[in-house]
Design goal:
Layout (H helix, E strand, L loop, with lengths): L1 H69 L7 H11 L3 E5 L5 E4 L13 H4 L11 E3 L3 E2 L6 E8 L6 E7 L8 H11 L7 E6 L5 E5 L15 E2 L6 E4 L2 E8 L7 E7 H4 L1 H22 L1 H25 L13 H20 L3 H19 L4 E3 L6 E8 L7 E7 L5 E8 L3 H15 L9 H14 L7 E10 L4 E7 L5 E3 L6 E2 L8 E2 L8 E5 L5 E5 L16 H10 L5 H16 L8 E8 L2
Antiparallel strand pairs: 1-2, 1-6, 3-5, 4-5, 5-6, 7-8, 7-12, 9-10, 10-11, 11-12, 13-14, 14-24, 15-16, 16-17, 17-18, 17-21, 18-22, 19-20, 19-23, 23-24
Helix pairs in contact: 1-4, 1-6, 9-10, 12-13
Length: 600
Amino acid sequence: MTLGLLFLLIIVFLVTAVGAKRQARTIISANLKDLSKEVTERRYGYKLLRQNTDASSITKARMLARIIQYDPDILKNDARLKELAVALNVDSICVSDHEGVLIASTEPGFLGFPMNSTEQSGAFMPAIKNKDFELVQDPQERGIDHVIVQYAGVARLDEPGIVQIAYEADNVNNVSDIEVIRDIIQALPIGAGGRFLMLEDGDDPVVFASGDPTENGLRLSELGFRKDPVLPDSVFIRGKPYFYQSVKIPDEPRRVLAVMPKSEVFAARNRTLVALFVIYVVFFVLFFFLLDLLIKRTVTDGFYEVNRALDKIIAGDLTQTVNVRSNPEFLSLSDGINTVVSGLKKNLTDSRRRVKRENELAKSIQRTLIPASGRRFPQFEQVDFVSSFMLASHKGSDVLETFVTDAGRPGFVMVETIGDSVSASLSMMKFRAIFRPCVPPASDPLDMLNRGIEVFKNEKVFKNQFLSIFVGFIDPENGRLDYVNAGYYPPFLRRADGAFEQLRDSVGTVFTSARPVELHQESITFGPGDMFFACSNGIFSYSDREGQLFTKNMLLSSLNTSKADSSQALIDCVMSGIRGFSGELPPEDDVVMAAFRMNP
């Protein structure tokens, strides 16, 4: 058996290794196409941009030469020359005589500078003899003071000489080829941890551009780059093993390597081998305990069958019966459950009576889910947290739970199920049973939900249920609320010196086990006196005698009317606004409210 397992592991290792390498090459190929496209487009765009800017610079230099031709006295007036620089939208102007000596400039200290004295300025000397001369230099160090500028120049029209305009470094479009390549490569990782490396060839190649910008400009020897002597497609970089492949970018003379961490390339292979090993161990253990399992099987199967029938009954299928006859105990249990279901069916034959009794049962379950209204967390003096509940007469299944984590952080969870009656209430009971064990060890709301989300998906009672959830963890010391909002009605926040505003950006996706749900955690920092208010959608089921519903603007008005400095007073003010609107009419849906204030 062990030899068979070893042979199977070797075969799986080889097959999955080949598949992993093929997948890695596919990923590299896909990213290479994007890289090649980006390089081509960016270089073309840079070329067009440079052509346009160069043409604009030459046009301005020609305009300046024409102005000097018609008004040469402007060269003797520094103020007018500076005004002309502003009008042309350039940083400086320089004009030379027939010997290339600057006779006018907006830059102080440049007068008398011989332009043939440096390589940068000497490039414009042919303009003295050639009236058709024009030149736009690349951004470079100015010969006179080594400042990075870009010069454009033409020949003077009034007499031999040079006319120049200049742009300083901040105003020069100096996106070079190296910056283009580095930006693109950095923005195109390969998988989660892979990257491209573009190399300048040599005895010890230099990294021209890398997906990790800290590697730019380093030699491969400085990165600890070495090939694996055993595996031809493996290298080590800074001691970490990588799968690598040489690739080619069109019109790019430099050598390019694509590298991916081996831990990422072979992750699926490693998981498969571990799974096979675990399966073998489990099978080996089961083989020795088979007799014991066979003895217990009749009992276990009986419980599973009873649970499956109960799940269907809880979901509302009252035609379901339990028929487990494997032993006297299950026979008695089956008959008892069937008697209860039969009696329930008999009592629900009348539609009105059935709805009433079902709602009463739902509300009785709901009452077990909610604590009494009032203050929570008395042990935390910094947090004035108060909750309140109003149950509808026949609809709704809302829950508010408060808790303290193992790390000593107070928290709360507000849940609303889309639906009503017993099944919704039972769903809430099961919700509590699932999340209670997840609360103490949780480090934050997202951790708490992720701990319970897999259990959620495997519970059949949630198969056709949609839940909106708001979970908040309060940090009393730092005055911070960390929360996750999965489709719950957005809460309200009031700073100590402002009015209540609704947190519209906090709404996430409603949770359902029928599809994956992406959850996001957000944070709010509270100052002394800041207040938080959250409520379920049921608050808008209140209506007046004419059937008009309570609105969000009415709720905001009630919140902002309250100038009290306690959470209980805030909730009392909201309830006063509701009662003033609806009188004694009950809500059509459950209402859950929570408010807290950070005490100074």
